[in-house]
Amino acid sequence: MADFETPEIKEFIGIPALQEGSMAHSSPFIAYTDHQEALGYPGELVENWQQVALDKMDDLRSRYRSFQVFLDSCVKCGACTDKCHYFLGTSDPKNMPVARQDLLRKVYRRYFTFAGKYFPKLVGAEDLTEAVLDDWYSYFHQCSQCRRCSVFCPYGIDTAEISMAAREIMDAVGKGQKYCNEIIGKVFTVGNNLGLPGKALANVLEGLEEDVEDDTGVAVKFPLDVKGADILLVTPSADFFAEPHIDGLIGYAKVFHETGASWTLSTTASEAGNFGMFIGSYENMRRVSMRIRDAAKELGVKRIIFGECGHAWRIAYSFLNTLVGPFDFLDQSYPIPQHILEYTWGELEKGTLRINKEENDHMTLTFHDSCNVARGSRMGDYPGGQFDYPRNVIKAVCNNYVDMDPKTTKEATFCCGGGGGLLTDDLMEIRVKGVLPRATALKSVVENEGVTHMAAICAICKSQFTKTLPYYGFTMDQIVSVHQLVSEALVMKGSEQEAELDGTDGDDTEE
Amino acid sequence: MAAIEFEGKSYEVDEEGYLVDLTQWVPGLAQIMANDEDAVLTDAHWEVLNFLREYYEEYQIAPAVRVLTKAIGKKLGKDKGNSKYLYELFPYGPGKQACKYAGLPKPTGCV
Question: For the segment A214-253, what is each residue's pLDDT rounded down to a tens digit?
Fold first, then answer.
């Protein structure tokens, strides 16, 4: 399957020697006619696609002032050139953020600026040809919209917004990406990215109730569609399906149980993720978000809490109120919406949770900041809270914690390599190459600090790492959910773990 | 789109070899698909594939990894009820590779 070379992992993250066009062949599968049409786009490339693309570009620059400013303001200073994980992993100069932006910018200049209209060669303006469209399709699907480059740009140019606009333009001409568009369609028809029907979801949750009771002796509930519950939990559907995601879900449920919370999941809003953002489509992003509002109203909840999902939290924190607000029907004394880590950290601070950190002593943890949480949102009520909350929770439940190189964490975090709609098998090469900077930083703390596991708070990060880190000699089970660590250390009232700790279980346990 | 020929019938598959019309699936297709990946399906593989079929017929989706490992563990013993065993059988991932052979839709999303 893998007919590419895995880059060599070195001691430090270095700037590679350029290999022009080395990733020009990378392109995701094109969306089928029905995937396109379900989202309101033409089923295949329209005949007058050049005109449609330019009209769309014009429409976008009038709708988003930022887009116009980003296209105009680059001075080619070069600060961004070595900041993209895909450039560092592929050596392809078109994966330098400035070069990626220029794929769109050169067309913008040709058709929308005076200099570009009359002296195109002088200002790097180019006609919109089929070759340019192919380049767009290839290289705008080698950007995970992680926004690391924008942190280092003196003008604050956000490549993610340019990449989103490019994808919106490509959708408008009928050249969409199968992975994202098929998935958004599933959200509309089934309720989640996975295509998990309500009956299957109920079956998974029942199974988890059995498992947790077997493990702990406590009947922890995983409620579904409970009208009148206080809290609606919206979490990525991967939490119902994949490993280690599902261990995180068990953690949320145990925390809710132990704090006596009244909570529920919803079959119609059984997905926190919103790929509408990845394809730059305000309309689809809004339609996906509306399910959450509708479910909250229908169930009559007072609060909405989001599970461990990176881009969902960016949307929830930064855009949800604009997209589908106002949320005046929710209890205004809680954050709207709230992150599960804010909830859990709040309870840990109050002291409502009994923790036995020794349960996690077989591990030394590090933490991967997810791009959309780190650079597109916040937790708590102060800047940087999104960096502290996950670390606070991990340190509250684990004795051994080490941070990775600060050049690769917090606002400078590297993307996992699978974000922004690239987490698909047809893009495995770019995913494996894109994880290189994170793998390098991880290897360093593994070798020098004895780190054994890396925790994450995003379904995409968790899946991407479990699939791609093995290319660099790590194992799948070295990736854990933050709430999995909480789950392991939490000593629930009336549990077997409590009895064992307090010596009231009647067994003669030696340890 | 590509197609698989089997016993004089043509079966349409997508870019990754997944059956397009899932109602067409017949057991013989599994080995034909496995041939492409140099895999020989044994009884051990078929224990998994049969469970996938049963689960799919009831729930219209592949089972979660945890549901699958639990079911296999119950049937074949605890030592086999883990993802390590499943990855030995299906090195490209039990969720995706086994689903393909069993004629189930590919799990999509953040998995």
Answer: 999 999 999 999 999 999 999 999 999 999 999 999 999 9
pLDDT over 60 (residue A166): yes
The number of domains in chain B is: 1
Query: Is B110 designated active site?
Result: yes
Contact A459 B110 (CB under 8 A): yes
The minimum CA-CA distance between A324 and chain B, rounded to whole Å, is: 23
In a domain, B111, yes or no: no
* Residue ranges making up the domain that contains B45: 3-101
Q: Do B59 and A200 touch (CB under 8 A)?
A: yes
CATH number (domain holding residue B49) = 1.10.10.370
CB-CB contact of B50 with B5 (8 Å) = no
Kindly indicate whether the domain formed by A33-176 is annotated with CATH number 1.10.1060: yes
Q: What is the pLDDT of residues A370-388, one digit of tens each?
A: 999 999 999 999 999 999 9
- Please report whether residue B110 resides in a domain: no
B2 touches chain A (CB under 8 A): no
Asked, for residue B24, whether it belongs to a domain, the answer is yes
Give me the residue from B16, B64, B105 closest to A240, CB to CB. Answer: B64
The set of residues, in sequence order, having a beta carbon less than 8 Å from that of A436 and lying 6+ positions away, is A7, A9, A13, A85, A88, A89, A417, A472
Could you give the CA distance from residue A354 to residue A17 in angstroms, rounded to a whole number? Answer: 53
Task: With H, G, I as helix, E, B as strand and everything else as coil, classify residue A207.
Answer: helix
Query: Which residues of chain A make contact with B81, given a CB cutoff of 8 A?
Result: none
3-state secondary structure A95-152: HCHHHHHHHHHHHHHHHHCHHHHHCHHHHCCCCCCHHHHHHHHHHCCCCCCCCHHHHH
**Mean pLDDT estimate for chain A:** 97
What is the pLDDT averaged over residues B50-59? Answer: 96
Reported ipTM: the value is 0.94
Tell me what percent of the residues of chain A surpass a pLDDT of 70. 98
Helix (H/G/I), strand (E/B), else coil: A471: helix
B 27-66 residues with CB below 8 A of A?
Answer: 37, 58-61, 64-66
User: Residues spanned by CATH 1.10.1060 within chain A?
Assistant: 33-176
Contact yes or no for A241 and B59 at CB 8 A: no
Measured between beta carbons, the chain B residues lying within 8 angstroms of A462 are 110
The answer to whether residue B78 is domain-embedded is yes
